[in-house]
C-alpha cells in the first residue's frame, strides 16, 4: 500500500454532498458540475455544525502520553481478566455464551482502544506521545501474543468446539479460526514439541533478520568516469559522491542502481552495476537462506504440514503449493509469445545502438524506457498539472459514492491530532444508515509515518446484545502541503495510489461481518488487495480519468483523450517481460519453500532462462543472496501480488469496464464482495459475484490486446 503533492483549500462538506448525488451525467457535464462546485468550495468556509458525539465510535483521539500508557495497562488488565474467566469455565459447562462470545466481544471492544494507544506512534505531532505509543504497542503486542499461547484457554475452546453446539456459519467460522490460531502456535502438541516450535520460531526470526542485515550492511560502490555515465542527467551526477581521483561513486542503493539501469547509455556500465548489485553479500547470504529454509521446513513439519509452503498457504485463497506453482507456470507460459516479441524488439534496438553485443538482463530497463519514450510521448512530469489534489479527491469521492451508493459528509471541526486532518461520515445513500467514518491525514509532516496506507481504527461488529460498532478507517498519505499558494499537484502514480488506498477505505467501511475479526481489512491476504486493484482501473479509462483531472489553472479543461490512451498503453508496455521477471522470483520462492534439499544457487540459474525466454542469469550474480522478500514478510507468498492482480483484472473486465459508474454492478460488488469480508471463503465470494469461477484468461487477454503489437 504507497504516495506525494500539496493542497490549497479544503473541500467543504456542501461540495461533497453535491458530488454524492447520483447524477446521471456523463463526460463534460459531470465535469462542469464538479468544476462549479469546486469553485464554490474555494470561497465557502466549512459550514457543518460541530458534532462531537459520534455514534458507534469508540476510538479515542489525541490522547496524551500518560493517558496512552494508562489505557494500555487497563486494556491488558481487562483482557487478562476475560481470558482468566474463560479459562476457568469447567470443561463440561462450556457454552457459546461463556466461552466464545466473551472472547469475540473482548476483541471487538478492545481493538479501537488498542488503536487509540498504537496509532499515535504513526501520526502524533509530539515526540513524547509517539514514544509512549511505541512503548504501549510493545506491551500490548506481548500480551496478545501470550494470550494466543494460553493452553488453558485453548482447552476450553477445544472442549466447546468438540461439543458441537449449533451456531450460525459466521460463528462457526470464528471458532474454527480461534482453534487454528492456537494450533498454528503449537498448542495441540506435546510440551517438548511445543518448546521446539518456539525455539525454531526464534531461530527463524534471527536468520531472517541476519539476511536483511547483511544486505543493509553491504556498502559496495562502483567508480565511474563521467563519460562512462553518459545519459544520466546532470542533476543526478551532482548527487553522487566523488572519489579522490575525480571519479563518480555509484552506490548499490536502489535509486542509484535504477537510474543507471534506466538511463545510462553505456552498456558496459549498466552491466557492471547490475553485476555488482546482483553480487551483494557474495555467497554469505546463500547459506543464511539455506539455514532459514531448513528451519522453516522443520517448523512446519512439527505443526503437521509436509513443508513450509503448505503451512503458509493453508489459510490463504491459493491453498496449496501445487496450486501456486500451476498458477505461476500458467501465467508464464501464456505470456511467452508476447515476451518473445517484446524481447525481439529490444534486441533489435540494442543492435542499432551498440552493434553485435549480446543482449542481457542488464539491458532490459534501458531499452524498455527508450521505447516508452518514443512510443507514448508521455511527459509524466507535465501531466501533474492536470491533477490538483482537491480535484482528484473530489473526483475519487464522486466515483466511489456513485458507484457504491454511498454518501460522504464531512464532520466539521472533528477532533483530530492535527489541524490538517479531516473526518467524514459515510452513509448508505438509499437507507440513510450510518455505515462508518474515515479520517484523511494526507500531508507530509515531520515525525509522521512515511508510507501511504490505510489503518483500521475500529472494525464493524455486532455484540451479543445487538449493539453495533461501526468501522472507522484512517488514510495516511504523503502529499506535499502548499508552497506559496500553488495548489498541490499529484504525479499520476500518486493519483493511482490515492485511489487504490481509498479503495481500501471503502472496503473497510462496506464490510458487514458481525465479528470484528472478519471485518475491516482482516481478510485472506490473497484476497485483501483485490478490491483496491479492481478500482485502480478507473485511473486508466478516459471517462473516469476525466472525473479526476483538470488543468490546474482551468479545471474545466480535463486531460486529453490521447493522453488517456497513452496512459493505458503505457500501463501494459512490455508487461510480459516485466511480469515474467516477477514470476521468476515467485517461482524461486515457492519452490524453495515447498521442496526439500533444493540447491538454491543452481535453481535460480536453471529457472532464469526458462522463464525469461532464453535470457540467462547475469554471470557472477547470485540473486538468491539478495532477495529480501523471500527472507522476511513474503516467504512462500511472493506470488500473492500477481494473484490479486490477475483476479482483479478478471473482475474489472467482465463486470465494470462497460459501466464505470454502473451503480447496479457497484452495489452487487458492495454486497457480494465487500460486505462479507473475512467471514466467507474468497473463492466462493468471487464466484458468486462473477457467476463463475475466477479465471486468469482475462488478465492474459488484456496484456495481449493492449500490447504494442495489437
Ligand atoms: C494439531 O492440529 C493440526 C491442525 O489442525 C493437525 O494437523 C495436527 O494433526 C494436530 N496435531 C496433533 C498432535 O493433534
Ligand atoms: C492534541 O493533544 C495535545 C496535548 O497532548 C494538544 O496540545 C493538541 O492541541 C491536541 N491537538 C488537537 C488537534 O486537538
Ligand atoms: C480489525 O481490522 C484490522 C485491519 O483490517 C485488523 O488488523 C484487526 O486485527 C481487526 N481487529 C480484530 C479485533 O480482529
Ligand atoms: C556470515 C557472512 O559472511 N556475512 C556476510 C554477509 O554479507 C555482508 C555484506 O556483504 C558481509 O559483510 C558479511 O560478512
Ligand atoms: Zn493495497
From TrEMBL:
Molecular function, one GO term = metal ion binding
| Localization | Cytoplasm
Tell me the cofactors it needs: Zn(2+)
Matching InterPro entries: MetalloPept_cat_dom_sf, Neurolysin/TOP_dom2, Neurolysin/TOP_N, Pept_M3A_M3B, Pept_M3A_M3B_dom
Q: What domain of life does the native source organism fall in?
A: Eukaryota
SUPFAM superfamilies reported for this sequence? Metalloproteases ('zincins'), catalytic domain (SSF55486)
Q: Name all Peptidase M3A/M3B catalytic domain ranges.
A: 263-701
Q: Which residues cross the membrane?
A: 22-43
GO biological process per UniProt? peptide metabolic process; proteolysis
Task: Identify the PANTHER family for this entry.
Answer: PROTEASE M3 THIMET OLIGOPEPTIDASE-RELATED (PTHR11804), THIMET OLIGOPEPTIDASE-RELATED (PTHR11804:SF82)
Name of the protein this chain belongs to: Peptidase M3A/M3B catalytic domain-containing protein
Q: Give the organism the record lists.
A: Gossypium raimondii (Peruvian cotton)
Q: What is the lineage of its organism?
A: Eukaryota, Viridiplantae, Streptophyta, Embryophyta, Tracheophyta
Amino acid at each position: 500500500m504507497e504516495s506525494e503533492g500539496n493542497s490549497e483549500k479544503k473541500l467543504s462538506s456542501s461540495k461533497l454532498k453535491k458530488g454524492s448525488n447520483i447524477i446521471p451525467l456523463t463526460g463534460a457535464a459531470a465535469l462542469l458540475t464538479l468544476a462549479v462546485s469546486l469553485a464554490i468550495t474555494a470561497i465557502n468556509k466549512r459550514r457543518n455544525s460541530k458534532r462531537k458525539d459520534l455514534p458507534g465510535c469508540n476510538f479515542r483521539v489525541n490522547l496524551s502520553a500518560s493517558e496512552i500508557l494508562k489505557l494500555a495497562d487497563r486494556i491488558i488488565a481487562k483482557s487478562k481478566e476475560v481470558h482468566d474467566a474463560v479459562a476457568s469455565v469447567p470443561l463440561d459447562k462450556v457454552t457459546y455464551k461463556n466461552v466464545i462470545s466473551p472472547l469475540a466481544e473482548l476483541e471487538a471492544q478492545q481493538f479501537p482502544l488498542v488503536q487509540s494507544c498504537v496509532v499515535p506512534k504513526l501520526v502524533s505531532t509530539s515526540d513524547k506521545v509517539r514514544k509512549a505509543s511505541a512503548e504501549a504497542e510493545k506491551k500490548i503486542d506481548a500480551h496478545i501474543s501470550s494470550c494466543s499461547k494460553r493452553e488453558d484457554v485453548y482447552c476450553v475452546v477445544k472442549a466447546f468446539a468438540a461439543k458441537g453446539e449449533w451456531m450460525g456459519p459466521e460463528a462457526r467460522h470464528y471458532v474454527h479460526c480461534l482453534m487454528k490460531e492456537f494450533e498454528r502456535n503449537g498448542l495441540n502438541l506435546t510440551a517438548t514439541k511445543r518448546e521446539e516450535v518456539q525455539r525454531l520460531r526464534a531461530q527463524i526470526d534471527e536468520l531472517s533478520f541476519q539476511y536483511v542485515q547483511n544486505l543493509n550492511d553491504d556498502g559496495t560502490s562502483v567508480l565511474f568516469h563521467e563519460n562512462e555515465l553518459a545519459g544520466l542527467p546532470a542533476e543526478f551526477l551532482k548527487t553522487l559522491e566523488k572519489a579522490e581521483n575525480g571519479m563518480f561513486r555509484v552506490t548499490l542503493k536502489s535509486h542509484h542502481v535504477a537510474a543507471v539501469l534506466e538511463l545510462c547509455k553505456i552498456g558496459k556500465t549498466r552491466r557492471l552495476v547490475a553485476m555488482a548489485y546482483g553480487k551483494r553479500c557474495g555467497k554469505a547470504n546463500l547459506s543464511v537462506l539455506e539455514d532459514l529454509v531448513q528451519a522453516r521446513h522443520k517448523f512446519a513439519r512439527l505443526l503437521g504440514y509436509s513443508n513450509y509452503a503448505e503451512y503458509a498457504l493453508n489459510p490463504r485463497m491459493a491453498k496449496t503449493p501445487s496450486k501456486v506453482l500451476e498458477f505461476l507456470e500458467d501465467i508464464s507460459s501464456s505470456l511467452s509469445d508476447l515476451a518473445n516479441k517484446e524481447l525481439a524488439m529490444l534486441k533489435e534496438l540494442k543492435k542499432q545502438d551498440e552493434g553485435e553485443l549480446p543482449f542481457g538482463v542488464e539491458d532490459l530497463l534501458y531499452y524498455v524506457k527508450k521505447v516508452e519514450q518514443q512510443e507514448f510521448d508521455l511527459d509524466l512530469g507535465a501531466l501533474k498539472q492536470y491533477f490538483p489534489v482537491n480535484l482528484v479527491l473530489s473526483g475519487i469521492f464522486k466515483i466511489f459514492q456513485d458507484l457504491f451508493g454511498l454518501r460522504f459528509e464531512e464532520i466539521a471541526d472533528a477532533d483530530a491530532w492535527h489541524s490538517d486532518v479531516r473526518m467524514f461520515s459515510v452513509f448508505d445513500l438509499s437507507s440513510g444508515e450510518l455505515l462508518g467514518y474515515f479520517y484523511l491525514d494526507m500531508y507530509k509532516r515531520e515525525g509522521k509515518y512515511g508510507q501511504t496506507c490505510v489503518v483500521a481504527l475500529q472494525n464493524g461488529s455486532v455484540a451479543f446484545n445487538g449493539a453495533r460498532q461501526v468501522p472507522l478507517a484512517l488514510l495516511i498519505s504523503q502529499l506535499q502541503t502548499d508552497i506559496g499558494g500553488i495548489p498541490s499537484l499529484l504525479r499520476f502514480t500518486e493519483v493511482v495510489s490515492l485511489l487504490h488506498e481509498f479503495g481500501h477505505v471503502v472496503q473497510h467501511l462496506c464490510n458487514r461481518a458481525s465479528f470484528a475479526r472478519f471485518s475491516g481489512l482482516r481478510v485472506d491476504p490473497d484476497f485483501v488487495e483485490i478490491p483496491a486493484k479492481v478500482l485502480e482501473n478507473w485511473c486508466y479509462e478516459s471517462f473516469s480519468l476525466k472525473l479526476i483531472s483538470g488543468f490546474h489553472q482551468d479545471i474545466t479543461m480535463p486531460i486529453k483523450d490521447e493522453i488517456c490512451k497513452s496512459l493505458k498503453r503505457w500501463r501494459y508496455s512490455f508487461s510480459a517481460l516485466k511480469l515474467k521477471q516477477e514470476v521468476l522470483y515467485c517461482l524461486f520462492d515457492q519452490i524453495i519453500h515447498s521442496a526439500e534439499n533444493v540447491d538454491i544457487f543452481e535453481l535460480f540459474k536453471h529457472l532464469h532462462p526458462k522463464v525469461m525466454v532464453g535470457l540467462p542469469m547475469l554471470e557472477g550474480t547470485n540473486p538468491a543472496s539478495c532477495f529480501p522478500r523471500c527472507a522476511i514478510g513474503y516467504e512462500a507468498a511472493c506470488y500473492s501480488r500477481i494473484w490479486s492482480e490477475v483476479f482483479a483484472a478478471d473482475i474489472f473486465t467482465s463486470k465494470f469496464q462497460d459501466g464505470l459508474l454502473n451503480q447496479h454492478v457497484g452495489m452487487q460488488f458492495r454486497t457480494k464482495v465487500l460486505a462479507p469480508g473475512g467471514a466467507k471463503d474468497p473463492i466462493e465470494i468471487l464466484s458468486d459475484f462473477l457467476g463463475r469461477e475466477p479465471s486468469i484468461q482475462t488478465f492474459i487477454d488484456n496484456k495481449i490486446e493492449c500490447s504494442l503489437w495489437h
